[in-house]
Write a structure and sequence with these properties.
mainly beta, 8-stranded antiparallel beta barrel, two-stranded antiparallel ribbon, 56% strand
Length: 224
């Protein structure tokens, strides 16, 4: 899949398209399933390590339909402190997303958007559904009390979905509030041995990860 995405991106970046880059700033809110072990007990807890996420993307679109593509490199940092368990978590995500925006209220529009110099209802021109397959590499760091922090890493494919609304400032600048969720089915929690009641080096729990996000996208268009 990664090789196919790379081929698609290589082809897309060579097409004679109007150039537009964008920047994302979002708040990333993972909602983990309940984990079964912590610090040598069977006490369950939920790890909800929230934090900021930042991304940069490149924009291109279909010629005659309002479907736009924004392949994105993204980084997010999540942290949480559980005082009752004397436990700290830090998780970094290095992500690639292939964002696809579908302007379902203006699907057959003239495509001179997301600017609003054309006549027509703003809602129809600006509202879109975003589908976003992706791939994430994550680096986990856990610490119990004063013990030495332990690292673990992994990777997972993901699928995101959300809604956004373009606010055209002028022909070259667009601000887009957006929000949605992302699911990583292959996410694995790799806990250090301090979190289990055995002498094994780690406890891996493949629980999956659902994450909500809200934020803003800034689009800069260099050709009209």
């Amino acid at each position: 899949m990664i090789r196919n995405l790379a081929i698609c991106l290589s082809i897309a970046f060579t097409l004679p398209l109007n150039a537009q880059i964008g920047f994302n700033g979002t708040y990333f809110m993972p909602q983990a399933e309940t984990l079964s072990t912590v610090n040598g007990t069977d006490e369950g807890f939920e790890l909800q390590a929230n934090g900021p996420a930042f991304g940069i993307n490149y924009w291109f679109r279909l010629k005659n339909k309002r479907i736009e593509f924004l392949p994105e490199l993204n980084y997010s940092l999540s942290k949480q402190n559980l005082e009752a368990q004397d436990f700290d978590a830090k998780i970094q995500f290095f992500n690639f997303y292939f964002n696809t925006r579908i302007y379902f209220l203006d699907f057959g529009g003239d495509c001179d958007c997301p600017t609003f110099s054309k006549e027509g209802p703003t809602l129809e021109k600006g509202l879109f559904l975003q589908l976003s397959p992706g791939y994430s590499y994550f680096k986990q760091e856990y610490q119990f009390g004063e013990e030495t922090p332990e690292d673990a890493d992994g990777s997972s494919f993901s699928l995101g979905a959300g809604l956004g609304f373009d606010l055209g400032i002028n022909d070259f600048v667009t601000i887009t509030p957006m929000g949605g969720l992302r699911y990583l089915p292959g996410y694995t929690w790799n806990f250090p041995k301090s979190s289990t009641s055995t002498d094994e080096p780690a406890a891996s729990e493949k629980k999956g990860l659902m994450a909500w996000y809200v934020g803003l996208h800034l689009g800069l268009r260099f050709e009209k």
